[in-house]
């Protein structure tokens, strides 16, 4: 496969997990992408195979050691053009724009953190790009890595049936997706909006855009403000 994810984790048994099912799973067995999982603990050097130690300066929890993680990253020997990511709640929030970039490239190396986090020096020394999947704290980076991989894999050529599904959905135009309906025509007294069964494609498109705009303005003022800024820039020339 051309696109590959290399995952460094203390819990390799968690993979492929949900990535082995449905769309991503079929694409994995079909060879449309490859998954390499590497156990960070294999780079431990002492008798107890320990990978963490107490935080310098005190405080709760344990910190993943820089030397062990650096050895694990080096042992993975990934090509220099592949992005090196660290899943981290401190990271830059993952966006669909970044997912599109990652899917278009050779595929990332992804480090999954555990415990209180990772020694800062390995983040710097191996130039890891910290990526967050949202403003909440998971117990480890594995589920975050799976979310990132899943978002990339569905965009790879041949994975989604209709390529159009990738270009119309939420975020592709800086907007949330319009509501979707399918049969039956009536459900518990609620009808499918008239316009969607009118057969008038222009009217359908206009209705969907209006719905997308209203939803985005109501639910995501942050996205909506960015959108208004860009529109203003474009019209100001
Ligand atoms: N003490 C850290 C902090 O406050 O930033 C939280 C560490 S968390 C318990 C353990 C690991 O889970 C992190 O190193 C990271 O790999 C992963 N993780 C937790 N939340 C995440 C998020 N929102 N996005 C990406 N990774 C996350």
TrEMBL record:
Answer whether the UniProt record assigns the keyword Methyltransferase to this protein: yes
Look up the EC number in the record and give it.
2.1.1.228
Its principal location?
Answer: cytoplasm
Q: Which UniProt keywords apply?
A: Cytoplasm, Methyltransferase, S-adenosyl-L-methionine, Transferase, tRNA processing
Give the organism's phylogenetic lineage: Bacteria, Pseudomonadati, Pseudomonadota, Alphaproteobacteria, Hyphomicrobiales
Give the species this sequence originates from. Answer: Bradyrhizobium jicamae
Name the GO terms of the biological process aspect.
methylation
Against Gene3D superfamilies, the record matches this protein to: 3.40.1280.10, tRNA(m1g37)methyltransferase, domain 2
Q: What is the protein name for this chain?
A: tRNA (guanine-N(1)-)-methyltransferase
Q: List the Pfam families.
A: tRNA_m1G_MT (PF01746)
Domain tRNA methyltransferase TRMD/TRM10-type per the UniProt entry, residue ranges: 5-224
* SUPFAM superfamilies from the UniProt entry: alpha/beta knot
Task: Cite a single GO MF annotation.
Answer: tRNA (guanine(37)-N1)-methyltransferase activity
* Assembly notes: Homodimer.
Report the function annotation for this chain. Specifically methylates guanosine-37 in various tRNAs.
This enzyme catalyses: guanosine(37) in tRNA + S-adenosyl-L-methionine = N(1)-methylguanosine(37) in tRNA + S-adenosyl-L-homocysteine + H(+)
Tell me the superkingdom of the source.
Bacteria
């Amino acid at each position: 496969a051309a696109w590959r994810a290399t995952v460094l984790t203390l819990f390799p048994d968690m993979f492929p997990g949900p990535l082995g099912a449905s769309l991503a799973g079929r694409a994995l067995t079909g060879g449309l992408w490859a998954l390499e999982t590497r156990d960070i603990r294999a780079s431990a050097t002492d008798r107890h195979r320990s990978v963490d130690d107490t935080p310098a300066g005190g405080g709760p929890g344990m910190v993943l050691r820089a030397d062990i993680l650096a050895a694990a990253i080096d042992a993975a020997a990934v090509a220099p053009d592949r992005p090196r990511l660290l899943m981290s709640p401190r990271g830059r929030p993952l966006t669909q724009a970044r997912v599109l970039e990652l899917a278009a490239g050779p595929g990332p190396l992804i480090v999954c953190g555990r415990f209180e986090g990772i020694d800062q020096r390995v983040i710097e020394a191996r130039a890891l790009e910290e990526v967050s999947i949202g403003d909440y704290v998971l117990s480890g980076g594995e589920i975050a890595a799976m979310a990132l991989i899943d978002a990339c894999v569905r965009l790879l050529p041949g994975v989604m049936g209709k390529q159009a599904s990738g270009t119309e959905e939420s975020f592709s135009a800086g907007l949330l997706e319009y509501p979707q309906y399918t049969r039956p025509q009536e459900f518990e007294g609620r009808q499918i909006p008239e316009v969607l069964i009118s057969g008038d494609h222009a009217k359908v498109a206009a209705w969907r855009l209006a719905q997308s705009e209203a939803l985005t303005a109501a639910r995501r003022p942050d996205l909506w403000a960015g959108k208004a800024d860009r529109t203003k820039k474009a019209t100001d020339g």
